[in-house]
Amino acid sequence: MAAAAAAAAVGGPQPPQPELPAPGLALDKAATAAHLKAALSRPDNRAGAEELQALLERVLSAERPLTAAADGEEAAVAGGGGGPGAAEEEALEWCKCLLAGGGGYDEFCAAVRAYDPAALCGLVWTANFVAYRCRTCGISPCMSLCAECFHQGDHTGHDFNMFRSQAGGACDCGDSNVMRESGFCKRHQIKSSSNIPCVPKDLLMMSEFVLPRFIFCLIQYLREGYNEPAADVPSEKDLNKVLQLLEPQISFLEDLTKMGGAMRSVLTQVLTNQQNYKDLTSGLGENACAKKSHEKYLIALKSSGLTYPEDKLVYGIQEPSAGTSTLAAQGFAGATGTLGQLDSSDEEDQDGSQGLGKRKRVKLSSSTKDQSIMDVLKHKSFLEELLFWTIKYEFPQKMVTFLLNMLPDQEYKVAFTKTFVQHYAFIMKTLKKSHESDTMSNRIVHISVQLFSNEELARQVTEECQLLDIMVTVLLYMMESCLIKSELQDEENSLHVVVNCGEALLKNNTYWPLVSDFINILSHQSVAKRFLEDHGLLVTWMNFVSFFQGMNLNKRELNEHVEFESQTYYAAFAAELEACAQPMWGLLSHCKVRETQEYTRNVVRYCLEALQDWFDAINFVDEPAPNQVTFHLPLHRYYAMFLSKAVKCQELDLDSVLPDQEMLMKLMIHPLQIQASLAEIHSNMWVRNGLQIKGQAMTYVQSHFCNSMIDPDIYLLQVCASRLDPDYFISSVFERFKVVDLLTMASQHQNTVLDAEHERSMLEGALTFLVILLSLRLHLGMSDDEILRAEMVAQLCMNDRTHSSLLDLIPENPNPKSGIIPGSYSFESVLSAVADFKAPVFEPGGSMQQGMYTPKAEVWDQEFDPVMVILRTVYRRDVQSAMDRYTAFLKQSGKFPGNPWPPYKKRTPLHPSYKGLMRLLHCKTLHIVLFTLLYKILMDHQNLSEHVLCMVLYLIELGLENSAEEESDEEASVCGPERCHDSWFPGSNLVSNMRHFINYVRVRVPETAPEVKRDSLASTSSDSLSSLQNSGTAQVFSLVAERRKKFQEIINRSSSEANQVVRPKTSSKWSAPGSAPQLTTAILEIKESILSLLIKLHHKLSGKQNSYYPPWLDDIEILIQPEIPKYNHGDGITAIERILLKAALQSRMNKRIIEEICRKVTPPVPPKKITAAEKKTLDKEERRQKARERQQKLLAEFASRQKSFMETAMDVDSPENDIPMEITTAEPQVSEAVYDCVICGQSGPSSEDRPTGLVVLLQASSVLGQCRDNIEPKKLPITEEEQIYPWDTCAAVHDVRLSLLQRYFKDSSCLLAVSIGWEGGVYVQTCGHTLHIDCHKSYMESLRNDQVLQGFSVDKGEFTCPLCRQFANSVLPCYPGSNVESNLWQRPSNKSIQDLIKEVEELQGRPGAFPVSISSETNLSKEMESVMKDIKNTTQKKYRDYSKTPGSPDNDFLFMYSVARTNLELELIHRGGNLCSGGASTAGKRSCLNQLFHVLALHMRLYSIDSEYNPWRKLTQLVEEVNSQQGNEEQQPEVPILYHDVTSLLLIQILMMPQPLRKDHFTCIVKVLFTLLYTQALVALSVKCNEEDRSAWKHTGALKKNTCDAEKSYEVLLSFVISELSKGKLYHEEGTQECAMVSPIAWSPESMEKYLQDFCLPFLRITSLLQHHLFGEDLPSCQEEEEFSILSSCLGLLPTFYQTEHPFISASCLDWPVPAFDIISQWCFEINSFTERHAEQGKALLIQESRWKLPHLLQLPENYNTIFQYYHRKTCSVCTKVPKDPAVCLVCGTFVCLKGLCCKQQSYCECVLHSQNCGAGTGIFLLINASVIIIIRGHRFCLWGSVYLDAHGEEDRDLRRGKPLYICKERYKVLEQQWISHTFDHINKRWGPHYNGL
Description:
Elements lengths: L1 H9 L13 H18 L4 H14 L6 H6 L3 H4 L4 H18 L4 H9 L10 E2 L4 E5 L10 E2 H6 L7 E5 L4 E2 L15 H4 L15 H21 L10 H22 L3 H12 L1 H9 L5 H15 L7 H8 L7 H6 L1 H6 L12 H18 L14 H11 L4 H9 L4 H13 L1 H10 L3 H16 L2 H11 L1 H14 L2 E3 L11 E3 L4 H4 L4 H11 L2 H9 L1 H12 L7 E2 L12 H21 L8 H21 L10 E2 L4 H15 L12 H22 L8 H11 L8 H14 L2 H11 L19 H20 L8 H15 L4 H7 L15 H10 E4 L13 E4 L1 H7 L2 H7 L3 H18 L30 H15 L7 H16 L5 H9 L14 H4 L4 E9 L3 H11 L1 H9 L8 H15 L25 E10 L1 H13 L14 H4 L11 H15 L1 H14 L10 H39 L24 E2 L6 E2 L7 E10 L28 H15 L2 H7 L7 E12 H13 L13 E2 L6 E2 L1 E4 L9 H4 L6 H13 ...
Antiparallel strand pairs: 1-5, 2-3, 2-4, 6-7, 8-9, 10-11, 12-13, 14-15, 16-17, 16-20, 18-19, 21-22, 21-23, 23-24, 24-25, 25-28, 26-27
Helix pairs in contact: 1-6, 2-3, 2-6, 3-10, 6-7, 6-10, 6-11, 10-11, 10-12, 10-14, 10-19, 11-20, 20-23, 22-23, 22-25, 23-27, 25-27, 25-29, 27-30, 29-31, 30-32, 31-32, 32-35, 33-35, 33-37, 36-50, 37-45, 38-40, 38-42, 44-45, 44-51, 45-53, 51-53, 51-54, 53-54, 60-68, 61-64, 62-64, 62-67, 62-72, ...
């Protein structure tokens, strides 16, 4: 039947054979299959083949409702009831049957799998899969392993990490091309080809016939479904529809690939067989449907080439508006296939850019040897067409997985790779048009990384398919679509085009997959060598790189701020790094040895050609255009990096690869422009361009970019400087930095190009640049290890760093394949050499530190290099931070007390090729500049800083260190005739120029300058003029003129270029604008040399005359052994001393002159007489000084006070040093307690009308319920077997007990017999600050109106304490009256216990025995009511209502005394579970129990217990009429008193009393309750032991019954209890099952005594705490073994005269109010009457577990991986899916879906829900995929941090680094502590609302 339906649906002919009855169908398929298989096995199988073909033709007919599905929506109707799916499934069933040849399909699969010779794993995964990468085992850096292979291999001690796959990947286990065999897992180690039998022929025979048809059928579907999208409508929807329909077919193919090698080889045959393809696709015949699909295929193919005939049309005819209409008409293919759209919407540049496009195009086409890339694709096999459709459909995941699953088959791998390359251009075009380019990129890379990582394969494809040509061409095409005209330099006539960074192509990184493939293949040496040898390719590549040269040009805004800050710079930097720099690093990694010189020459040659073209295209002569900068000069950087490599590794002669001087001059301009612009940007001169320009300046030096950007730029400048004329270079620098006009001797000057406020920072910038240029050695001779060390030291000096941030900050070779691997051996060894590890610590505020590395002392001492720090800082503040740390080190180690200057560091020697660089230090221009600056600093001219002086001295010192000439000939030259030629200095050597005196200088100054007036006077007198002539003319110097002169000289020298007309562009900007005041010439008398200026500066800095005294006059040794350590660190004074010493060392003459100057400068001064007036001023000074010091002292004191307050106020975790509660406890005679309000600041008592309250935080807590009775903490389950069941928790036990009681006893009585609040109890805590309640209300009002987003919700009453900012949510009113109960209440009275018992009873009966009658509505009582409401609303209803009758008052009663119980129990836990430590507890200072008790008592008194039922009577009176109770059987009895929880009774009794309570009443209550407790202990003991023990005790006790203190002997009492209870059925039913319960302990008197004490201790502890809070008595501290006796005497249970000599027995504390035996028998009678009917339960209720262990979180495993592997794939028990964000509760081990909508219930997500059920609103969850712990507290949540750290003490949030993580016990302890002490809210600062969405 189904077959008929299917056939009908198919619309084909009816099946020829008669219809079989339905059941026979499956059988029929199998039979047909078997029959065909037999037919085909015959030698002559033609008939069989034809029959099979016919069958397949029918089953797999392409005339499917699919067309309908693709075209319209009638799909569902078309297929009838079954829909289009039915036919498909039918076809698949047929295929499976046929493949199996009549057998079962599953058996067939198993049979094929048996022949799997897979030596490779090849598991394919998609995005987000967790995989591993081991760098130790990997040959290719892309190597990855699936988790299974990784864990089965041995990688101990390897450098591996776990990662989340972004694009998908495949497991490389077993592939020795990609990884070393040592890393293979156990399954893939064996070379398995030998032992696998060969496949029987008939097994796969059917597959060979069926699969071609099946695949062809699939291809026809794909052809059918594809519609060429209209230009405006995206076709995603249709494509996805088709894909959904094909899901089962593709999955079927995917399953086939998983059957292993045998099936894969069949598939490979089918996919690559060209004959099959030809037969099936050409034999279409008359089938109309097939024809139609074939036409669609041809249309789709049409656009696959890069160029095609319509091209010309697009170029020529299109109107300017081509962007839209024509394109649509032509179909999108024309548009993207052409290059013509070079922004053709701007009419004016039509001619220029179009022409240029053509020029490029021609160049391009000629360079590709293989025309095929340009043409339309031709397909020859199924594989090719499948890939084609895969691309057309934008790489559907299923198809990708299928194609990749086949890769373990070697033959397929090669065929597929070639096909992929063939389609490369088409891939690029599809990618560019795609709307989902991100996903598509990932899928492309998923495939290509598998193909191109294999060197052998890459080489083969390069040779056979011109892979390199194709890639480069495709990249070039891709970029050509987004070019714009460059505006750099010459905006009008520029012929240069650059990429437009605003285009989607760059903005979205669409080019990434192609570039990444290119980088990948360049990492293979054989491929890279072909590239470097191929001149045509290099030309094309440089062409490509030049598209990025000068992109993203910035123009400085001079007038107003830009309206729109473009963010294109991200795209620009990413593009340069990925598309230019990374391929460059890839190529460089193959140019490491001498044999590769030729490659370098090639690259350098074409690079220079491209640069020359570029200079021509932008019309560049010699002056860069003002106010423009581009950070992107990839051509310069290619050139620089290859030069560096050539000298460093290939021993190439530098000069042989350098161009002429003119080219060098051009080369240096743009990198220098960038350096100057950096200074301008940091001087805020670009501020109108917005923040993004700062972003660019930072990115340029940032660690991921610096070695591809700033480092090559500086290196190139160093090369230029070493080869160009030094004077020209120096003057260019100062001119670029715009500070030429500042370098004048005059005190005033005019800067025509720079505002005065920027002068200083630009001058600092220029000098800093020179210092960096001259002292950086990164490319000039440092070895790789030295570089690594220098980088590391620089980073560590700025700040302590974590291991991972160091890895991130050390500039890597950005190409991952370069071989320098992060975390490599050298990294670790250098790190341990320069840094110490600081283990992670905890601050008490709870902020957690990571493990940090900090520089060793000797690094600060010897290796701190400020130059490197300046070069590498992204933020300027880091330089300051490094200096501060350096200063701190010097102070601490006592090396230098003052404020040190950056230390001068000796440099590594220069490589000989760069020796010329040092000429910069020995050129007159620089000396003049240094001289001028020294003079200006000495004369205090404006705009100079200490920093300038520091740099000047640094340069002088550098010059002295690097002076070349020998002293002797230098002195001779001085006497020569050249002495007085026109320039300032005689020679160019700094050593001799230092001593040269300069007498007069002629300067241009504004007429207003002081110099003018002075000089006019001077020049009148003739003698001054004559002296001027004697000394030669006054010096004049103009940097600009000097530079022009040099430039002309250089140009003329290179006569080869003479035919080029040089346009000396005299740029107008250097001539002063006319508006400026007139300049005039003045002559200054200077009479100084550099040496004399230095000595005077020494005096100036030290503030003393005659401070410099040449050290060698005292100690001649200094000159012989010059290394003086004392000068290493210091300030300017030490620096000058060091320089003078070096100068003296280098020349005898300098030494002499220094001595002379010292004598001259400071002639010995006779002591001056101080006149009276002077004396007066001096005194005044002194007085001022003293006043200043006093003020300082006061300020300091104030600051320290403030600090200590802040510390104590903020320090939540260690309350020991907290401010004590603001309550005066000192003077007991004060009757009223006085409170300070922290809002209004007034002090006063709390009164009825204006009550004061404590700031409190109420929170529901289930911590108590988590106590367990066993000591072993539970472990987090990490296997299916380990599960945690909650039945042994305290909460569960108490729940069971209450429901047992409620089953058998009267409800109201049950609710008095126990406490609740083990789960969801309300815990109250305070910070100890008080405020008026009316003040608080107005404070809340102001918070409500405050619009700032707080971390808390004011509507829920939350606020922060106005004083200490601690989180709070309510105010607890303080009860008026004294806080310390007055002595009246304290005095022990001598009344007998009987009297006291009566008083207690009377007081309880009196209803309103409060000083304030509740009826009168005072403010106080209102507040008390509102706080009670708050307390109730803190916890959920289910934790408050336990009564069977909802809303009964008993419920509230139970809830209220349980609140008190919860708080006492929690305090006990905070003290560690016992009271041995004694003292006022930590919580005591801040405890609010006293106030809480008042509030609770007030409300408890509203429900007076009916005196009939008051348990007090049962405890203290013998009831006469015992029998009357038995009468009313139908009513449930009350709970027997022995089943009551004694602590609950205590709280009920005390809260029922009028407050304040008298001490003797309290003691009386405790004594009475102790008798009950002791009896309970005896009963429990009697139940626990066995029959023989019982009878033995019964007798021994009975004998002593008549002794005097029988009532105080436990033996007597025990025997009495046993005899009483034996009357009932309690001890009967001693069946076999009972014995299991009973412990087989032999009870000794000691063990019994211990049992009794342990039973009573919890009650004594709680009671003592209560006494401590109510009466303010301190708790005594004690040893654990004497805790019982100490507490009982403290509570007044032990008679004071009790001697402690003989062993202490607990029974001596008893004080029976009525005869013991009578009351005990009365209590036992109640039990007996209950056990009559329910012996089992009666027994269970008697044995109470009293000793709970402290609560703990679950124990976590040592290694995080064990948690991760178990949980990250675990399915959720609720929704049975694997959660996207799994989490596990650390309190109970429940596994939950974080944020999972699957498990959402009534708008609550699962984590929030669980936090309410498990922790009453507090949840602690470990996020499996992030290793982070998240805390949920009520409606807020926060990220707590991680308790798992790696080997370097760091968290790994989100497992980004994937290194192994280990538990940090200290952190876990802190987490547990915060949970138990309920301080999450105070300690963690960053809270946010979760809106129930977690």
